[in-house]
Structure formats: structure tokens, C-alpha cells
From TrEMBL:
InterPro entries: Cro/C1-type_HTH, DUF5753, Lambda_DNA-bd_dom_sf. Residues 15-71 form the HTH cro/C1-type domain. It comes from the Bacteria. It comes from Kutzneria viridogrisea. It holds the Pfam family HTH_31. This is Transcriptional regulator with XRE-family HTH domain. SMART domains: HTH_XRE (SM00530). The lineage of its organism: Bacteria, Bacillati, Actinomycetota, Actinomycetes, Pseudonocardiales.
Length: 282
């Protein structure tokens, strides 16, 4: 989690603490402010940055002393300045984010990933990874000049797959293999890469077949690095460190593994996907 995200989460925690100290629920706070309940929740959970007027209204609704309100407004002001700096950093490209992810892979002892919409980065071929970075750069209006370096960082990180001292679990939905970002011929090579992963002795690799009833709704993929969860959204990455929330993700991963297939069954699905892309590539 970068500094801005950590501080926004801590600021939200403080606002939540003050609200609970006043004996108000999230719903009653929203009603008192004339806000939606989702806005209150997003600010308290560090998903949305409070504006100065938001902080003023919050303090007024709770009847906080002027000194407390002033301190919160100043803290909010510094947070918004840091947010601007963070957004500027993001506009410089993907490489710094790859370095941050590489650090998580290097230091974590237990890594659990669930990928629902794409081949996970740790198993991507260079061509697939390049396509991912280029399409995201275009969408987010950020430079694509560092794409080659970002691809190299991602591929270099794959050495951790062979680290027998780590516990690594990777779960991919078959659906993630059906809407690629690259050409059919490139998907053939990508599926070959996944087939090889099935037999890697240093990782546990599984596939959730199409049309398989899921135990829970899975709105997005996620990675668990020891006691931290990383979630990639359309425009950013979120990191969750609250122990209760991390436990929810761990439980969800456990349940998803109950409907996954491994070994020969997983290989059969991947080979069938590979044949499909090979036919389209002809």
C-alpha cells in the first residue's frame, strides 16, 4: 500500500471512530448529513477522499470542538495534496507499480492469487504482458514508453514461482482465458505457459471451469500476500490490511478452491482452450 492509500485509510478510520463515539450508525450519519450511505462507507473505508466541505459537515454533524475540527481539516488538506502527487506518479507509467509488486513477491512467504478476468501477471508471457500494459496505458492516458521495462520486471518476477520456501497458490477461472487482450496465435503460447504451470512442484495451480456453480460472488480478482490483500481495479490498485477484511478474502479463496480442478483435469481444460485459439489462428 502506498503512503497516500495508507493515510486515506487511517483518516477514514478516524472519522469512523468519531462517528461511533457519538453513537451513530453509518445509516444515521448519512441521514444527518443528507448523503448517501455509500458515500459515508467509502470515506470511512478509505475508498474515497473527503473534500474540505465533507470534513466540515462531518465535524458539524458530530458537534466536535473547533480544535478537533481544525486538526481534521488540516489532515484532510495534506491528504488531498498527497493524492495529487500520487496521481502524478501514476501518470509516469507502469514500471514503479511493477517494482512495488515485485517487493511483495520477494518478501511474502505465503501468496494466494485468484484471477477472474485475465491470466495472472506472474504467469503471463512477454507478449501477453505487453498487450495488457499497452491497453491499460491507453485507457488511463498514461505513458507507454516504459512498457518494455515493465514487461521485463513482470517476467523477472516469475523466478519466485520456483522458490520452494514460499507457499504459492494460483487460481484462474476458465473465463479469464476466453476474452484475451492479444491475438489468437499469442494465446496459443500463453496457454502452453499455463499448461507448464500445472506440473510445477513449487506452486498449487487450479482452474475454475466454465459453468461451474460458484460458492460466492467473485466481483474481482485479488492477491493475498501474507496479511495483506491487493485488489486491482480499473484505474488503481487497492491494498487491504485490516485483519478482518483479509480474513474474508482468505475464506473466499478457500471456498473457491472447493470448485476448482487441478492436475490432469486442469491440464485438459487448458489444452482445450489452446486448441480453440490455435484453430482461430489458422
Amino acid at each position: 500500500m502506498n503512503d497516500f492509500e495508507s493515510e486515506r485509510l487511517a483518516f477514514g478510520d478516524e472519522l469512523l471512530r468519531l462517528r461511533e463515539a457519538a453513537g451513530l450508525t453509518g445509516a444515521s450519519m448519512a441521514e444527518r448529513l443528507g448523503w448517501t450511505a455509500s458515500k459515508v462507507s467509502k470515506i470511512e473505508r478509505g475508498r474515497q477522499t473527503a473534500t474540505d466541505s465533507d470534513v466540515v459537515e462531518w465535524c458539524a454533524a458530530l458537534g466536535l470542538r473547533k480544535s478537533v475540527a481544525d486538526a481534521l481539516r488540516e489532515r484532510g488538506r495534506k491528504l488531498r495534496i498527497k493524492q495529487v502527487a500520487w496521481r502524478r506518479q501514476l501518470r509516469h507509467g507502469h514500471q514503479s507499480r511493477q517494482q512495488q509488486s515485485g517487493s511483495s513477491w520477494a518478501t511474502a512467504s505465503t501468496i494466494r492469487g485468484v484471477s477472474t478476468m485475465a491470466v495472472p501477471g506472474i504467469l503471463q508471457t512477454p507478449v501477453y504482458a505487453r498487450a495488457v500494459f499497452e491497453t491499460q496505458a491507453e485507457l488511463l492516458k498514461i505513458p507507454a514508453t516504459d512498457v518494455p521495462a515493465s514487461v521485463n520486471k513482470r517476467i523477472e518476477r516469475q523466478r519466485h514461482l520456483y522458490d520452494g520456501d514460499k507457499v504459492i497458490e494460483i487460481l484462474v477461472t476458465e473465463a479469464a482465458l476466453t476474452n484475451p487482450v492479444c491475438e489468437a496465435r499469442d494465446m496459443v503460447a500463453q496457454l502452453d505457459r499455463l499448461v507448464a504451470a500445472v506440473d510445477l512442484p513449487t506452486i498449487q495451480f487450479g482452474v475454475i471451469p466454465l459453468y461451474r456453480k460458484l460458492p460466492r460472488l467473485v466481483p474481482h480478482g485479488f492477491w493475498i500476500f501474507d496479511a495483506m490483500v491487493r485488489v486491482e481495479t480499473v484505474s488503481a490498485e487497492l491494498e487491504v490490511v485490516d485483519s478482518e477484511q483479509v480474513a474474508v478474502y482468505a475464506e473466499l479463496a478457500d471456498e473457491l478452491w472447493t470448485v476448482a480442478v487441478e492436475g490432469a483435469e486442469a491440464r485438459a481444460i487448458l489444452l482445450a482452450c489452446g486448441r480453440h485459439w490455435a484453430e482461430l489462428a489458422d
